[in-house]
Design goal:
Layout lengths: L1 H29 L29 H13 L6 H11 L16 H12 L2 H13 L9 H20 L8 H8 L5 H10 L8 H13 L25 E2 L5 E2 L1 H4 L19 H4 L3 H10 L63
Antiparallel strand pairs: 1-2
Helix pairs in contact: 3-4, 5-6, 6-9
């Protein structure tokens, strides 16, 4: 028994020593300041801002929904505070109703604002007219196609919020909006149809959006015209125009268009403003307008041009761009050369 008693006493002594050490350790930790460490991310969101209303009917629905949700429908806000918020987000220079002299309380001003702009007839006419005002036969570019998609979807969404049955407009909307697409896109859409069923407007939008995603983001696509090795050297690139005529692009450019120099309706070779420029200024303007250096027309490159050569040096550039001094004078073609005249003296270009 004595051995057991000795073993028990030793065990108790070891246990007591361990307890004493643990108490010392715990007391040391308890004296340290308690720091709250939170590794959770700050999930607070920025407050939702109300869009400003500038008096345009197309912006009314977005402003009305946000203002009613964040200000008008709240019962804990005073009418004077609501009126201040209304004047903060509605531009007084465009909507004098809410600015200037005090014309009544919040309820009166809000009711008059709703009566003026929350008008389904006016809003529907505005959104439909916005679609009809899209340019006809625009240039083939990614920005043009995306603008078409955004305009159609925004207007249709706004009309749908006013309970207008836009989903039943396919038979009317598709023929009306197809001319608002570039000619190549419209042609490819027609080639993609596999049945005689009336196409859905949503199908047209999805097709245009896919095509926009595959176009470059830089400049509009201009049909490339390459010169063939035929005896007549005539380049035939047919473009279907709105009038139904088939034109050669090199011939079509002979018609008068807006002059890139003065924006008047005439050829640049007839422009006095262009003729009065220095020679370097003429070259810079032709480069910026992407014109042919030989005939000063758009739609093709200098090496594909079928016009004649410079009447002064017989090189392939327009006479108005010739850097060599005038060598000879042709009646009705050149201005008379006088001693001391510079090479930039306006002369008549070859037609």
């Amino acid at each position: 028994m004595s051995e057991h008693d000795d073993l028990l006493a030793l065990t108790e002594e070891i246990f007591n020593n361990i307890c004493i050490k643990l108490k010392r350790k715990m007391s040391a930790f308890s004296e340290l300041p308690i720091q709250e460490c939170s590794h959770a991310p700050d999930m607070r969101l920025d407050p939702v801002s109300i869009p400003s209303f500038d008096g345009q009917p197309s912006n009314w629905l977005a402003f009305n929904d946000m203002f009613e949700t964040l200000v008008h429908n709240r019962s804990d806000l005073q009418p004077t505070y609501k009126l201040g918020k209304l004047r903060q987000y509605v531009k007084a220079e465009n909507v004098p109703l809410v600015g200037g002299l005090y014309t009544g309380g919040y309820e009166e001003v809000w009711a008059e604002l709703k009566q003026r702009y929350d008008n389904p007839r006016t809003l529907s006419e505005h959104h439909v007219q916005h679609l009809l005002d899209l340019p006809t036969h625009p240039s083939e570019s990614r920005a043009t196609l995306l603008n078409f998609v955004d305009s159609v979807r925004n207007s249709f969404r706004a009309l749908e919020l006013m309970n207008v049955p836009v989903k039943q407009w396919d038979a009317i909307a598709v023929p009306l909006l197809l001319p608002k697409l570039p000619i190549v896109t419209r042609t490819e859409w027609g080639m993609s149809l596999k049945s005689n069923e009336i196409p859905k407007m949503e199908e047209v939008i999805m097709f245009v959006e896919r095509r926009a995603a595959n176009l470059p983001t830089s400049s509009p696509i201009v049909p490339h015209i390459s010169s063939g090795r035929t005896s007549s050297r005539v380049v035939k690139a047919h473009l279907t125009m709105n009038s139904g005529k088939i034109l050669n692009p090199l011939v079509a450019s002979d018609k008068a268009t807006n002059c890139p120099s003065c924006n008047e309706f005439h050829r640049i070779t007839k422009c006095q403003t262009f003729r009065n420029l220095q020679l370097d200024g003429r070259w810079d303007l032709v480069k910026q307008a992407s014109l042919c250096f030989n005939c000063l027309k758009a739609g093709h490159r200098n090496r594909d041009c079928l016009s004649g050569l410079c009447l002064n040096c017989q090189q392939k550039h327009n006479t108005l761009l010739c850097r060599r001094p005038q060598q000879r004078s042709v009646e009705g073609t050149f201005s008379r050369f006088t001693p001391g005249a510079s090479a930039t003296t306006p002369i008549v270009s070859q037609e």
